[in-house]
Write a sequence for this structure.
């Protein structure tokens, strides 16, 4: 599998079709993976692909919009790519997509490699990238487990007061490092609303209320665009369960608008479009 | 809960329909609860989702967004966008512990002074029944 990636990377770099291949290499702990940018053919042998390659590399393409670039993507990463292509953030002709079939990645940390699959991979129903120029790996038979959101449902089952205190507890920890934003392929605004001073949407005070503003902002701007790569939760230094918010919205977007983000490169985000006659359970008050 | 609990309600009313509807209610001397603080906006779609969060963050007990009936938007389709946005936001707020009953999106035309009055009464009644937000 990795041989196929290397051969393709060599071919692309040698022919000058791309000036960089973005992939993975072994991190310095010798156990996990880290992103690798291959500019020279001599670095190609550093490329790896295995169950520790958890990062979504698509974010890096935003720095290379005008440079022809090849990128190694898992199915979930490919969906992020679709979102960016749909939003005209990338030019299709500048991206060469090396799609990898993916049985799931494992939980990793510094110097730590778990045996268990990442939570998102346990319920994954897409093991082949929805978009690629070159496919690596054997096709994996798609199981069709129902998309389960058991932790979302658990929280929904609690009372509003319990939910409020649950989130207050979570958001209290937030140090607003914005790692969740910086890692997210869907967050590409040059000036983020959270850092605007006029109007000042979010104060620099660290209070659960201000943090709530930030987290609603982040989650809602990704509503119908989040592809669930879960990078935000992985990089959170204080372990806020951000995927709960993302998956809640994913669930509602699917229920209300029958939409899943990133399956096609020309889909419009559900909040950028509408149907005249839809019933959404709002605005239906009668005297 | 104190007997004299009065919910604070923020109302975002679209300039072309609902604000005029509230105006008609006033001109026709139809009473409606004074709990609502009205903010005039150009369109229901002008209302950013974060306005709503900000209202709750600053102590509102309920937020009402009112716009032209679907199909009647002054800007043709603003209220359709608002409908999608707030249908989703309502679920997110509920998930975060702000009950969805505290956030309404409704349609009031420029001639519906009576409907506006009844809508605000119904909303305020609901909020009074629910009591203050546990923050």
């Amino acid at each position: 599998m990795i041989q196929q990636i290397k051969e393709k990377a060599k071919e692309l770099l040698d022919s000058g079709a791309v000036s960089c291949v973005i992939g993975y290499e072994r991190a310095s702990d010798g156990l996990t993976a880290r992103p690798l940018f291959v500019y020279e053919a001599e670095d190609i042998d550093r490329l790896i692909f295995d169950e520790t390659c958890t990062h979504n590399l698509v974010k890096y393409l935003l720095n290379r919009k005008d440079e022809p670039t090849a990128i190694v993507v898992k199915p979930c990463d490919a969906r992020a790519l679709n979102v960016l292509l749909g939003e005209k953030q990338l030019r299709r002709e500048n991206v060469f997509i090396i799609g990898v079939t993916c049985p799931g990645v494992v939980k990793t940390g510094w110097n730590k490699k778990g045996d268990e699959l990442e939570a998102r991979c346990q319920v994954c129903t897409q093991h082949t990238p929805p978009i690629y120029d070159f496919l690596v790996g054997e096709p994996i038979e798609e199981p069709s487990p129902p998309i389960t959101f058991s932790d979302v449902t658990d929280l929904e089952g609690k009372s509003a007061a319990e939910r409020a205190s649950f989130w207050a507890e979570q958001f209290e920890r937030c140090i607003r490092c914005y790692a969740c934003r910086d890692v997210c392929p869907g967050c590409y605004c040059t000036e983020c609303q959270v850092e605007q001073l006029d109007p000042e949407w979010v104060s620099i005070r660290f209070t659960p209320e201000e943090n709530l503003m930030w987290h609603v902002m982040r989650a809602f701007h990704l509503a119908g665009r989040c592809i669930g790569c879960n990078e935000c939760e992985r990089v959170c230094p204080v372990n806020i369960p951000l995927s709960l918010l993302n998956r809640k919205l994913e669930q509602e977007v699917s229920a209300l608008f029958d939409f899943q983000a990133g399956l096609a490169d020309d889909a419009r985000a559900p909040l950028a479009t509408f149907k005249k006659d839809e019933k959404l359970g709002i605005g239906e008050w009668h005297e | 809960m104190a007997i004299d609990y009065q919910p604070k309600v923020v109302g975002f009313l679209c300039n072309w329909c609902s604000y005029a509807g509230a105006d008609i209610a006033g001109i026709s001397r139809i009473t409606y609860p004074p709990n609502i603080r009205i903010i005039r906006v150009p369109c229901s779609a002008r209302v950013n989702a974060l306005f709503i969060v900000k209202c709750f963050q600053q102590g509102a007990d309920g937020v009402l967004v009112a716009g032209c009936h679907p199909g009647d938007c002054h800007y043709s389709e603003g209220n359709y966008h608002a409908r999608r946005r707030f249908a989703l936001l309502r679920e997110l707020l509920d998930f975060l512990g702000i009950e969805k009953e505290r956030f309404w999106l409704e349609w009031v035309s420029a001639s519906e002074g009576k409907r506006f009055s009844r809508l605000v009464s119904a909303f305020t009644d609901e909020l009074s029944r629910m009591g203050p937000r546990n923050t």
Remarks:
- The mean pLDDT of chain B is 94.
- Chain B has one domain: 21-41+50-128.
- Residues 83 and 105 of chain B are 8 Å apart (CA to CA).
